[in-house]
Design brief:
heterodimer, B: mainly alpha, globular
């Protein structure tokens, strides 16, 4: 029963996220509303972390698998991508590195200034 | 045999699963960063489909059940985040400034490159949501008049790329604080990058998860402003 309950809570919150998504017309998906609801539920102890930990851990562990179908689907997008692939791929590679470096270095600089960090 | 495989409900799932297991094994054995499990499994599935001459639709009729779990899995990212809530509170300023500067650098650099390459407005807004999670990215691209199929392709390429290069980029550019590493990965390469962040560590994974949500929402606002610039 333990895992059924856990999976039930997770799907229940996902469904709630889906409902909010259908009510509010913003381009924010059900998963993000669900993530926020789950965080609030855990914080307010409406849902104890032990009640979702195993099933949640399982879903997070198999998450990489969930991206394979969409990525293989790039095959079908190739026809449209072909025309502008060079600037698109170059921009994608460069901006990904830029964003990673800017975010990481900025956060780290603020942490150092404030004397934050792990300890 | 081919007919059986095209009609099988489990073929798409089992081939994806085997491909990933093979990817992890190869990565363990050789330890080069470009031998990324996700990249190997994507290429493996593409090659198998090509050899067996199975089209994407038949593969996806089974494999889509894997994608189906993506929404509840994203909801579950709140669990590791909750477990790092104290750390988040302590570093809330660094977290917010880090993610905001990341989102601005994403939109700003895309604008700069789009001008440099003389991209049309349509192609420019197609690229704008490239660093955020697919579900939000499609919505933005659609609203701004972009080409959604290309947006999805670019988002996935960004994610896989982030997953592959995260370790190297952080090392080369001296990003070593676990909080900063997590934010850098999540803000630049959303959920697919976050997979790598969790492999690096709990804190990295939690911060990367947070970045998916925050940078996604900030990009909704930012992209609608930046769309007017070209």
């Amino acid at each position: 029963m333990k895992h059924i309950n856990q999976f039930g809570i997770i799907l229940g919150i996902t469904f709630l996220g889906e409902m909010i998504h259908s009510i509010i017309s913003l381009p924010i998906p059900a998963s993000i509303y669900g993530l926020a609801i789950m965080l609030i539920c855990l914080k307010t102890k409406v849902v104890k972390v032990e009640k979702v930990k195993q099933a949640g851990g399982f879903l997070i562990e198999i998450m990489p698998l969930m991206f394979i179908p969409a990525a293989v689907g790039l095959l079908t997008a190739w026809k449209e991508l072909k025309v502008i692939w060079f600037p698109v791929v170059l921009i994608t590679v460069l901006t990904t590195v830029i964003v990673m470096v800017v975010t990481g270095r900025t956060a780290q600089a603020v942490m150092k200034k404030d004397g934050g960090g792990k300890n | 045999m081919k007919e059986f495989l095209t009609n099988s409900v489990y073929f798409g799932v089992i081939i994806s699963l085997s491909a990933y297991i093979i990817g992890v094994k190869i990565k363990k054995k050789f330890k080069y960063c470009f031998l990324n499990p996700l990249l190997i499994s994507i290429l493996f599935v593409i090659i198998v489909l090509k050899i067996l001459k199975i089209d994407y639709e038949s593969y996806n009729s089974g494999a889509r059940f894997l994608s189906y779990l993506l929404t509840p899995a994203t909801v579950c990212l709140a669990i590791p985040l909750y477990q790092q809530l104290e750390l988040l509170k302590k570093n809330v300023k660094a977290v917010m400034i880090g993610i905001i500067s990341g989102v601005l650098s994403s939109l700003g650099s895309i604008l700069a490159f789009a001008c440099f390459f003389g991209l049309s407005h349509e192609n420019y807004v197609t690229l704008l949501p490239k660093s955020i999670t697919t579900a939000i990215g499609i919505g933005i691209s659609e609203e701004l008049g972009g080409i959604t199929t290309i947006t999805v392709a670019v988002i996935i390429i960004t994610g896989v790329l982030g997953n592959i290069i995260a370790d190297k980029v952080c090392k080369v550019f001296g990003i070593y604080e676990p909080v900063a590493v997590g934010l850098a990965i999540g803000t630049s390469s959303h959920a697919i990058g976050t997979v790598r962040a969790f492999e690096i560590g709990e804190i990295e994974g939690a911060m990367s998860s947070l970045s998916i949500a925050v940078s996604g929402v900030l990009t909704v606002i930012g992209a609608s402003v930046f769309a007017n610039f070209l």
